[in-house]
Amino acid sequence: MTTVDRPVCPYPFPEAAQLALSPEYGKFRRSGKLGRLEMPYGGQAWLVTSLADVKLVLADPRFSRAAAMDRDVPRTLPMLETEPGILSLDAPEHTRLRRTVARAFTVRSVESLRPKVQAQVDALVDRLVERGPEADLVADFSLPLAITTISELLGVPEEDRAQFHEWSDLATAISGTSIEEIMGAQDALDEFLTELVARRRREPSDDLLGSLVAARDVEDRLSERELVRLGTTLLSAGHETTANQLSGHVFTLLEQCAHWDRLVAEPQLVAAAVEELLRLTPLGVVTFCRIAKEDVELGGVVIKAGEAVVAQIAAANRDEAAFARPDELDFDRTANPHIAFGHGLHHCLGAPLARVELQVGLGTLLRRLPRLRLAVPAEEVVFKSGRLLRGPKALPVTW
To answer: Mutual orientation of helices 224-255 and 164-171 as an angle, nearest 10°?
Structure first.
């Protein structure tokens, strides 16, 4: 195999409407060739879109996240990555940080939280019913559920929870927001977590943040800066992702009501439906690059040491070689090897918690609001733009 010249495409691709996927991803995947991208900052990168190749890039240590640190590498964000954290490190440093929190996110630990999540969901639906018969499912359900769940796990006091979502949203901007605003939002999140850490030192607790403080102060397993950055990552990613997923999943079901009505009639399909919705509904399209540490043969070319690779998860989840009728929502798939939560070293730590929230949230809406429908035509639902994550800005529903 040899390195070959390819036409270079500007990236990101034009933003597709709502939760659609830009057709360029499918074109590259079906061609069997890697794409060549001109990134907004730092130069060119390879685009990988097949399931097998994306999994290889995500799991193979020859492709490094840490090699992008503090370097002008190809990227979608204007700022350089300068703060090492759990999302940007390779083993063994990544492993060290992940172990400090992994116990809280095991399937067994998270399943023990299911009754508490159910109680939160029931309270939110009670409020919907009391105020109904219309609501914004983002502001009135998905977002408060996700914020409450991660806040209680970490130990964020209730009076402080309204503060961090706006900062988190700004910190994930990729366009339409100035660098100063993005950096200011990240600084605000850091200050917020620094104060919470100081409070935990004054008032020790057995929540996740208390455990992280002990890992720092008693066991010396992470630095002060790592402690704060890990806290902001868990807080931000722990609510933004789930809130967008839950709202996006409900929109997908209500856009074609037959899917919703089937789940109302067959609630035993909810767990399988969540997996299929995770596969089909793109959460984040723009992603971080990995840097080849040595020459690697992939997709018919040699990716040279030092070159950047974009491994596109949403495109891989629609790979015709892995999924029959990949663009269709099918609750009856006998196998669903999606990688919506990533793959390899950086597989989403919070995946078990997200699954519980999605299963309980969706299952309860189906049971208690079986006649739920969009309150506006589907094409009028406005989605976020210019952010790393996608989802409805608001989701007007009625029942």
So the answer is: 90
CA dihedral defined by 227, 233, 234, 235, rounded to 10 degrees?
110
Q: Which residues contact 1 (CB under 8 A, 6 or more apart)?
A: 297, 300, 301, 302
- Quick one: which of 377, 295, 280 has its CA closest to 333? 280
**pLDDT tens per residue, range 291-324:** 999 999 999 999 999 999 999 999 999 999 999 9
Q: What are the Cα distances from residue 246, in Å, to 118, 120, 141, 143, 253?
A: 15, 15, 9, 9, 11
Q: Report whether 245 contacts 274 (CB < 8 A).
A: no
6 near 45, Cβ under 8 Å? Answer: no
| Residue 159, Cβ density class (10 Å: 0-12 exposed, 13-18 middle, ≥19 buried) | exposed
- Of 25, 39, 36, nearest to 304 by C-alpha is 36
H runs (alpha helix) in 296-374: 313-316, 351-368
Q: Taking the model in full, what pTM does it have?
A: 0.93
- What is the rounded distance in angstroms from the CA atom of residue 392 to the CA atom of residue 389? 10
Average pLDDT over residues 315-335: 95
Name the nearest CA neighbour of 165 among 136, 137, 138. Answer: 138
Q: In sequence order, what are the residues at sequence separation of 6 or more whose Cβ sits closer than 8 angstroms to the Cβ of residue 128? A: 135, 140, 141, 369
- Kindly list the structural domains of the chain, giving each domain's residue range(s) and its CATH number in brackets, ordered by start: 8-398 (1.10.630.10)
**Coil, strand or helix at 36:** strand
Phi and psi at 163, nearest 5°, equal -85, -35
User: Which DSSP helix (H) or strand (E) runs through 397?
Assistant: strand 396-398
Tokens of 94: 């990544």
**Whole-angstrom distance, CA of residue 116 vs CA of residue 353:** 12
Residue 187 neighbours by CB distance under 10 Å: 12
Give the 3-state secondary structure of residue 97: helix
Of 65, 74, 68, 27, nearest to 49 by C-alpha is 27
Question: pLDDT (tens digit, 9 = 90+) per residue, 244-279?
Answer: 999 999 999 999 999 999 999 999 999 999 999 999
Q: What amino acid is encoded at 152 in this protein?
A: E
Q: At what angle do helices 143-154 and 224-255 cross, to 10 degrees?
A: 150
